[in-house]
């Protein structure tokens, strides 16, 4: 057994002997393994986090923020190494992995640290002193698609708030989390403040979510598992934050510059192989512009040639696993069966490579807004173009899924774009390509989740609010 859990400030072995093999999705070769994990591992980690809690919560916010800022610096020093791990286990193209994966992880920590300096830890309200204090031990359960950022978005805020954390990394991409724990170890956080577990969701994730001594679960992943987390948390009434799936719409109003908006939407749909919760997977286009938009989208999609993710020129790597590849291809098949027009792409695996879980990027046009490919999260490079006749109808279609995570609006008239953007029931809306802001609130309406991450909004999730009447 290797020592690969990080508990109470040391590397330790799992109490179980089973291992999970990690594959490189571009080569299908084994690149490492981690424990498959046990409920006893969870119990040990929660105990370590509980023991560390009081002292960490009493460390001032300034001191905690300094630790988190030092972790950002440490990750920056290791950025190339961690990017390499991430490319190998997720298949994200190297250039994207460097900025959108590892770079974003660093930004999360810096933003949390900066927000902690300005956060209203206490304030007066008439005769009361309002105090915000750490909620306690937080269980963080995270997915594989942005395996660093999804942990740092949680722990940056949780640690700054004074919580201690137990992270259960995705079993599909656990090696990036191990690299993060190595950086945390190098920074020298007090023992037990950060703990890392590995293993399957149904065993380790469930044990963490239901553990009576965990005060809060912060989960990022699929809506189906988010629902299960709520059930597991119910008996102990623990707080739950959920960052779940999406089916975000990019609304191209009829005065939008299609030559800019269409390639931008294709990029926002295909980033990280379409394996992004906020991927803009539906492009809404005025009916009379459908043919032109379709041509531009197919042209943009042709730039996404599936290739070796370690190559700096690659824009589209493999899907993360055989399961994910098959899921994506089954949706392409479904789209064809449901009568949508496949402009480019294939329901068969890409023939460009003899190994690896590669698919061709797909663009469908004339998609019925209620078709499965327009309603369900696919998590692959599959864009659905949906025609509409009026702005009113475009808004209804954009809001017409169970999700509400992100979106975009394009128009030559900035006021008109903003008016439509305000009507979208989702959290992060790009207006005319407005760039991503890690300090802005991120999270979901409806079945895209509960709560927000991002700077002060994230910090607010990890505190209890109390008052002293003076
Ligand atoms: P997933 O829900 O299958 O797994 C996420 C995590 O939950 C993993 O660590 C997994 O082991 C664990 N898990 C699985 N079953 C569990 C259970 N019964 N109890 C406790 N834990 C359990 O998701 P995934 O396939 O890893 O990631 C893709 C999904 O994540 C997509 O739906 C995507 O939209 C979503 N996601 C959301 C956001 C966001 O911020 N809203 C960000 C990234 C990904």
Poorly predicted spans:
none
Q: For this entry, what is the oligomeric state of its chains?
A: single chain
How does the major sheet shape up? 7 strands, mixed
CA-based gyration radius: 22 Å
Helix amount: 40-55%
CATH architecture of the largest domain: 3-Layer(aba) Sandwich
Kindly report the average pLDDT value. 97
Q: What is the 3D form?
A: globular
Bound small molecules, deduplicated: nicotinamide-adenine-dinucleotide
CATH superfamily of the largest domain: Aldehyde Dehydrogenase, Chain A, domain 1
- CATH fold annotation of the largest domain: Aldehyde Dehydrogenase, Chain A, domain 1
How would you describe the overall organization of this protein?
This protein is of the alpha/beta class and 470 residues long. It folds into two domains: 5-244 and 446-469, Aldehyde Dehydrogenase, Chain A, domain 1 (3-Layer(aba) Sandwich); 249-437, Aldehyde Dehydrogenase, Chain A, domain 2 (3-Layer(aba) Sandwich). The chain contains 15 helices and 22 strands. β10 (216-220), α8 and β11 (239-243) form a beta-alpha-beta unit. α1 crosses α7 (201-210), α4 (94-118) runs parallel beside α5 (149-161) and α5 (149-161) packs across α15. The longest helix has 25 residues, at 94-118. The chain starts with a strand and ends with a strand. The structure holds nicotinamide-adenine-dinucleotide. Residues 141-146, 150, 168, 170-171, 200-202, 205-206, 209, 220-222, 225, 228-229, 243-246, 277, 377, 379, 405, 444, 449 line the site of nicotinamide-adenine-dinucleotide. Nicotinamide-adenine-dinucleotide binds at residues 141-146, 150, 168, 170-171, 200-202, 205-206, 209, 220-222, 225, 228-229, 243-246, 277, 377, 379, 405, 444, 449. It catalyses: an aldehyde + NAD(+) + H2O = a carboxylate + NADH + 2 H(+).
């Amino acid at each position: 057994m290797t020592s690969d859990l990080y508990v109470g400030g040391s590397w330790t072995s799992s109490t179980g002997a089973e291992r999970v093999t990690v594959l490189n999705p571009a080569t299908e070769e084994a690149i490492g393994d981690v424990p498959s994990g046990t409920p006893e591992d969870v119990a040990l980690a929660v105990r370590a986090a509980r023991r560390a809690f009081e002292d960490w919560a009493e460390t001032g916010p300034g001191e905690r923020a300094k630790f988190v800022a030092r972790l950002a610096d440490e990750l920056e020093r290791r950025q190339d190494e961690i990017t390499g791990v991430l490319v190998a286990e997720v298949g994200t193209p190297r250039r994207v992995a460097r900025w959108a994966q590892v770079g974003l992880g660093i930004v999360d920590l810096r933003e949390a640290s900066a927000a902690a300096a300005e956060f209203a830890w206490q304030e007066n309200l008439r005769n009361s002193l309002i105090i915000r204090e750490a909620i306690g031990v937080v269980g963080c359960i995270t997915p594989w698609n942005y395996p660093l950022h999804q942990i740092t978005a949680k722990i940056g805020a949780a640690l700054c708030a004074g919580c201690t954390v137990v992270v259960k990394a995705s079993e599909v991409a656990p090696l990036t989390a191990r690299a993060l724990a190595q950086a945390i170890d190098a920074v020298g956080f007090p023992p037990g403040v950060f703990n890392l577990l590995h293993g399957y969701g149904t065993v380790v994730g469930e044990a963490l979510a239901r553990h009576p001594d965990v005060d809060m679960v912060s989960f990022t992943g699929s809506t189906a598992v988010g629902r299960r987390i709520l059930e597991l948390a119910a008996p102990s009434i623990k707080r739950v934050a959920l960052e779940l799936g999406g089916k975000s719409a990019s609304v191209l109003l009829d005065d939008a510059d299609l030559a800019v908006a269409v390639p931008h939407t294709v990029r926002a749909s295909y980033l990280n192989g379409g394996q992004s919760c906020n991927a803009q997977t539906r492009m809404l286009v005025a009916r009379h512009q459908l043919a032109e938009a379709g041509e531009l989208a197919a042209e943009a999609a042709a730039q996404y040639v599936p290739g070796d993710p370690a190559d700096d020129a690659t824009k589209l790597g493999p899907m993360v696993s055989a399961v994910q590849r098959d899921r994506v291809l089954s949706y392409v098949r479904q789209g064809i069966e449901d009568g949508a027009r496949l402009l480019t792409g294939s329901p068969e695996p890409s023939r460009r490579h003899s190994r690896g879980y590669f698919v061709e990027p797909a663009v469908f046009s004339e998609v019925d807004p209620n078709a499965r490919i327009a309603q369900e999260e696919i998590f692959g490079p599959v864009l659905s173009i949906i025609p509409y006749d009026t702005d009113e109808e475009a808004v209804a279609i954009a809001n017409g899924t169970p999700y509400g995570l992100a979106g975009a609006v394009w128009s030559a008239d900035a006021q008109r774009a903003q008016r439509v953007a305000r009507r979208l029931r989702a959290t992060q809306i790009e207006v005319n390509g407005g760039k991503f802001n890690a300090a802005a609130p991120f999270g979901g309406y409806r079945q895209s989740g509960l709560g927000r991450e991002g700077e002060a909004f994230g910090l607010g999730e990890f505190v209890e609010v109390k008052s002293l009447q003076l």
